[in-house]
Amino acid sequence: LSGYTIPGVENKILVTLFADDTTIYLRKSDRIADLQHCLDTWCLASGAKFNTLKTEIIPIGSETHRTSVLTTRCLHPDDNPLPASIHIAKDKEAIRSLGAWIGNNVDNAAPWERVLDKIHSTLSHFQRSHPTLFTKSHLVQASVGGMTQYLAKVQGMPKHIEDALEK
After folding, report:
1. Cβ neighbours of residue 128 closer than 8 Å, sequence gap 6 or more
2. Are strands 87-88 and 56-57 parallel, antiparallel or unpaired?
3. Largest alpha-carbon pair distance within the chain?
4. Residues 67, 30: contact at Cβ < 8 Å?
5. Which residue, 34, 52, 82, 86, is most buried by CB atoms nearer than 10 A?
6. pTM
7. CA–CA dist 13, 4 (Å, integer)
């Protein structure tokens, strides 16, 4: 498995691990069978088990390559097709990875609509208890801040979302 070389980054990018989330970066020339062999060996040694029902693939590269992966369900021409249980994201379909919504040609504002709805619902609920100004300031900091800080860091915040939050 070769992973990706990124200018300015000393080591190749092949895998990222966080808690129970694993992201693997495969090139067009990499074989899924080689990856499966590595994963089987690692699982045997560690006692871990991959939940293939949660496996998702975001093809990257040219539109032609992404379409080929979607239609053939193969990452490499010599691979067997991926099992039907593995989800392959289409263009404009965002996949959640470590709290960020990523994919090809995705609308970066889309995840914010759900957050805005949740904030509106939360603030409407709190408003029914007729909070004091002091309590309102704490509620806004705790709820609005808590619902937006991480997503703003990993996703960025479009200007129109920032304006809606200020309102």
Report:
1. none
2. parallel
3. 66
4. no
5. 82
6. 0.74
7. 5
Beta-sheet pairing, 21-24 with 15-18 = antiparallel
Report pLDDT digits (tens) over 60-101: 889 999 999 999 999 888 888 998 889 999 999 999 888 888
Reading the block at residue 26, the tokens are 């495969």
pLDDT for the residue 167: 82
Contact 79, 91 (CB under 8 A): no
Both structure tokens of 125: 């609920």
How many angstroms separate the CA atoms of 124 and 133, rounded?
15
User: Mind listing the pLDDT tens digit for each residue in 3-14?
Assistant: 888 899 999 999
Given the structure tokens 């691990």, which residue do they identify?
17
The tokens describing 102, both together, are 């990523």
Q: Per the structure block, which two tokens stand in for 101?
A: 């919504």
**Could you tell me the two tokens for 91?**
């263009």
Averaged pLDDT, 115-126: 90
Q: 110-127 and 159-166 are packed helices; what angle lies between their axes, rounded to 10 degrees?
A: 0
